[in-house]
Write a structure and sequence with these properties.
- The protein is an alpha+beta fold.
- It has 2 domains: about 120 residues, MutM-like, N-terminal (N-terminal domain of MutM-like DNA repair proteins); about 130 residues, Helicase, Ruva Protein, domain 3 (Orthogonal Bundle), CATH 1.10.8.
- It contains 7 helices and 12 strands.
- Strand 11 and strand 12 form a beta hairpin.
- Helix 1 packs parallel to helix 7 and helix 6 packs across helix 7.
- The longest helix has 20 residues.
- The structure holds zinc ion.
Length: about 270
């Protein structure tokens, strides 16, 4: 599932390849997207002024003053290229632009992706999103964890607490800061909060620099894969040896989510 670094990469790609382009026509829109946004065809004739990211949402600012909000969910991809490719059966939206024979495709195998104009309900969702992960400070994290007895892994995944983190980068951040994923949020020490803040910021920066992580389908808008997979220390590494201590990386479930960690480097201190 695309997380913040992947969405950031896509937004940067859209700003470089689609910004300023006017929609000539929508040759194809799948019924499930029209059901979620009946007015999607109003994009015709409008111009994409700019794109920004909030959490894992892509927000397109249009010349008409409307804003389009895109969430890729499990498997959504946005591809931009020449207007001559053959349609894939998973292409659910095609936008052809007036200039430069350019075409944007929204491809989504699992069909959970959402494209909607921003109205009151969507704005409310955006307003509720938590602190942006790449910019989080130790004092912000302190204020967020101290109120919660939830496992730290679950808290970090909550988009209304911290926006943008998902399973990959939470597991990597907890490993880097030596914190057990089941540890109660409110029991984190000041040192652990500092270490976790640093880990989140470093991992976000490194992942954005490497265009995100590609396992199967994710890519930037030009089809380029993310390169962060080579930096993964625990995510999907269960059964491998920990690079710090040599113990075996294990996988457990936390709140229903597969969770990877090193039992030696991330001890579950039960003194609290
Ligand atoms: Zn270890």
């Amino acid at each position: 599932m695309p997380e913040l670094p992947e969405v950031e990469t896509i937004v940067r790609g859209l700003n470089s390849m689609v910004k300023g382009l006017t929609v000539q026509r929508l040759p194809h829109v799948s019924p499930h997207l029209l059901k979620r946004e009946p007015q999607l065809r109003q994009l015709t004739g409008d111009t994409f002024k700019s794109f920004e990211r909030r959490g894992k949402y892509i927000i397109a600012h249009l010349k008409s003053g409307k804003r389009l909000m895109i969430h890729l969910r499990m498997s959504g991809r946005i591809l931009v290229g020449e207007d001559q490719r053959r349609r894939d059966k998973h292409d659910h939206l095609e936008i052809v632009f007036r200039a430069r024979r350019r075409r944007l495709v929204f491809r989504d195998v699992r069909k959970f992706g959402v494209i909607q104009f921003v109205r009151d309900g969507q704005q409310e969702t955006l307003n509720r999103l938590g602190v942006e992960a790449p910019a989080i400070t130790a004092s912000q994290l302190q204020a967020l964890v101290c109120k919660s007895k939830r496992p730290v892994k679950s808290l970090l995944l909550d988009q209304y607490v911290i926006a943008g983190l998902g399973n990959i980068y939470v597991d990597e951040s907890l490993y880097r800061s030596g914190i057990h994923p089941l540890k109660a949020s409110s029991s984190l020490s000041a040192n652990e909060i500092r270490a976790l803040t640093r880990a989140i910021r470093q991992i976000m920066a490194l992942a954005i620099k490497n265009l995100g992580t590609t396992f199967d389908s994710y890519s930037g808008v030009n089809g380029e894969s993310g390169r962060f997979a080579r930096y993964l220390k625990v995510y999907n590494q269960n059964g491998s040896r920990c690079g710090k201590c040599g113990d075996v990386i294990v996988k457990i479930k936390v709140g229903g989510r597969g969770t990877h960690f090193c039992p030696t480097c991330q001890k579950h201190d039960r003194r609290w």
